[in-house]
């Protein structure tokens, strides 16, 4: 599951403040996502690849993640040329749409650009740091609570679910396509939900007992360094020039 | 200091009260509470920190009834509670943040909170754990870190709910050492007779909603007589 394998490292991107990286990531991803120009997106891909290289992440797990996402783009390559756009060209017995091919290519480029940049910018910070960065950027408390607590407890809930399924298997439960299976799986989900709910109230109690009154006080106010500011300026300028490329 | 006076409590949907007209005062430095499952031991501790309100009777702290939110805050500052499951207690991503959570809530500055947290971890022999990820600790480590999160608030009374559940013998003896060295009032719920005999000087038993103090020498273990001989029992009940 979530093992944060990219969080530890010694590169420039690992040392930058999560706040700065979050701002850059949001801006960059937004620009890439709405861009319609190949030039702009390709330039974005070069930037993202440069960021990725700077982060010095392990290549093989990163490629696996990319492959996972590109599995979905395959379907676009299959369907879009056959269904989208007017202008067509005959390839053997098939009439392929150029617009469709173009769109599939653009989406594939965008997907990989965005994934590379997010791996470089966001997976180099721990979820905890990102949660605190959200708070520092004055994103609603609830949102950062939600992120931090989902992160902390998703493992526990997953383990609880595994314990339940194991208990069912040990009593010779073999899932099939029948009412008994549906009911059992329903019970498993239901029970996981009930247990999670009970756990959340116990956690709330534990927090109350330690003086919690609705506000998480972050301990690390990661101070912005000179390096952070330089990176922010460079990254924003580069992303800004992508917009220019798009307009030209 | 901390006292429950003639409290009764019935869980919703339950037929019989789990605690009835029970009075209990924290007066001995180290007290153990034993009793069968579901007899109300945990309910009693929850009531002592105001997590459960008694249907009848009252909770007194320093002789004054605890009624307002402010009273509760004052009480909770001085009474620490170690939960049965450490996963319920450790919710911050890193150990340091979790231990600093209490001091931050008490109004210490981030710098002071960090200092307190580091010192508390050091006192418990957990130096070097600061940046560890809480959910990746082992069960024993989680228990000790959970204890650190409470001790960081410098309580005067410590309530422990089945602290030895799922602990290996080595961590259990670490815990015994730690608790013996702590100069705080301690109320410990446990089924682990051996553990209680090392950590407490008085023993209470809850039975049918009532609590009585046991003569410690009347409770003993016969490991040789029957299979369940590890479980403590008294002869005058």
Report on the architecture of this protein.
The complex is a heterodimer of chains A (248) and B (237). Chain A has a two-stranded antiparallel ribbon. Chain A has helices spanning 12-15, 18-34, 38-55, 59-83, 98-121, 127-136, 141-170, 179-209, 226-247, and strands spanning 88-91, 94-97. Chain A has 2 domains: 12-133 and 222-247, no CATH class; 140-209, no CATH class. The longest helix of chain A has 31 residues, at 179-209. Helix content of chain A is 73%, strand content 3%. In chain A, strand 1 and strand 2 (94-97) form a beta hairpin. Chain A is mainly alpha-helical and 248 residues long. Chain A has 9 helices and 2 strands; from the N terminus they run H-H-H-H-E-E-H-H-H-H-H. In chain A, helix 2 packs parallel to helix 9 (226-247) and helix 6 runs antiparallel to helix 7. Chain B is an alpha/beta fold and 237 residues long. Chain B has one domain (2-218): P-loop containing nucleotide triphosphate hydrolases (Rossmann fold). Helices cover 34% and strands 22% of the residues of chain B. Chain B contains 8 helices and 10 strands. Chain B has a 6-stranded mixed β-sheet, with helices on both faces. In chain B, 43% of the residues are buried. The A-B interface holds A 126-128, 131, 148-149, 151-153, 155-156, 199, 202-203, 205-213, 217-221 and B 46, 49, 51, 73, 76-77, 80-81, 83, 85, 87-89, 91-94, 96-97, 100-102, 104-106, 110, 113-114, 134-135, 149-150, 153. Chain A: InterPro entries: ABC/ECF_trnsptr_transmembrane, ECF_CbiQ, ECF_transporter_component. Chain A: Keywords: Cell membrane, Membrane, Transmembrane, Transmembrane helix. Chain A: It holds the Pfam family CbiQ.
């Amino acid at each position: 599951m979530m093992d944060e394998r990219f969080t530890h490292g010694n590169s420039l991107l690992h040392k930058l403040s999560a706040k700065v990286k979050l701002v850059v990531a949001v801006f960059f991803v937004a620009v890439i996502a709405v861009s319609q120009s190949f030039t702009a997106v390709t330039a974005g891909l070069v930037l993202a690849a440069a960021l990725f290289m700077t982060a010095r992440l392990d290549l093989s797990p990163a490629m696996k993640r990319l492959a996972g996402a590109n599995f979905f783009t395959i379907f676009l390559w299959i369907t879009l040329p056959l269904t989208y756009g007017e202008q067509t060209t005959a390839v053997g017995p098939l009439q392929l749409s150029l617009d469709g091919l173009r769109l599939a290519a653009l989406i594939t480029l965008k997907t990989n650009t965005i994934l590379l940049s997010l791996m470089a910018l966001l997976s180099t910070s721990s979820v905890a740091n990102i949660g605190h960065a959200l708070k520092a950027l004055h994103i609603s408390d609830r949102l950062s609570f939600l992120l931090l607590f989902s992160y902390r407890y998703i493992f526990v809930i997953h383990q609880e679910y595994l314990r339940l399924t194991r208990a069912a298997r040990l009593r010779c439960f073999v899932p099939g396509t029948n009412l008994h299976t549906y009911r059992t799986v329903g019970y498993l989900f239901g029970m996981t939900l009930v247990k999670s709910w009970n756990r959340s109230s116990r956690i709330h109690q534990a927090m109350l007992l330690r003086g919690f009154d609705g506000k998480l006080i972050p301990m690390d106010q990661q101070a912005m360094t000179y390096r952070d500011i330089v990176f922010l300026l460079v990254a924003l300028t580069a992303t800004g020039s992508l917009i220019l490329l798009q307009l030209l | 200091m901390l006292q429950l006076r003639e409290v009764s409590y019935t869980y919703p949907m339950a037929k019989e009260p789990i605690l009835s007209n029970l009075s209990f005062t924290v007066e001995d430095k180290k007290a153990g509470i034993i009793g069968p499952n579901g007899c109300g031991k945990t309910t009693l501790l929850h009531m002592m920190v105001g997590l459960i309100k008694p249907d009848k009777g009252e909770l007194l702290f320093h002789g004054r009834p605890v009624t307002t939110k402010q009273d509760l805050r004052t009480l909770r500052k001085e009474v620490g509670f170690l939960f049965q499951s450490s996963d319920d207690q450790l919710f911050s991503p890193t150990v340091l943040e979790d231990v600093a959570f209490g001091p931050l809530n008490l109004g210490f500055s981030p710098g002071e909170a960090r200092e307190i947290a580091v010192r508390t971890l050091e006192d418990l022999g957990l130096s070097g754990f600061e940046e560890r990820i809480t959910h990746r600790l082992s069960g024993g480590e989680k228990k000790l870190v959970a204890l650190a999160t409470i001790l960081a608030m410098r309580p005067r009374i410590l309530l422990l709910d089945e602290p030895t559940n799922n602990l290996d013998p080595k961590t259990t003896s670490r815990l015994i050492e730690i608790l013996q060295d702590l100069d705080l009032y301690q109320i410990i719920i446990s089924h682990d007779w051996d553990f209680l005999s090392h950590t407490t000087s008085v023993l209470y038993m809850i039975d049918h909603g009532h609590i009585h103090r046991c003569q410690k020498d009347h409770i003993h273990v016969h490991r040789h007589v029957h299979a369940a001989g590890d479980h403590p029992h008294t002869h005058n009940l």
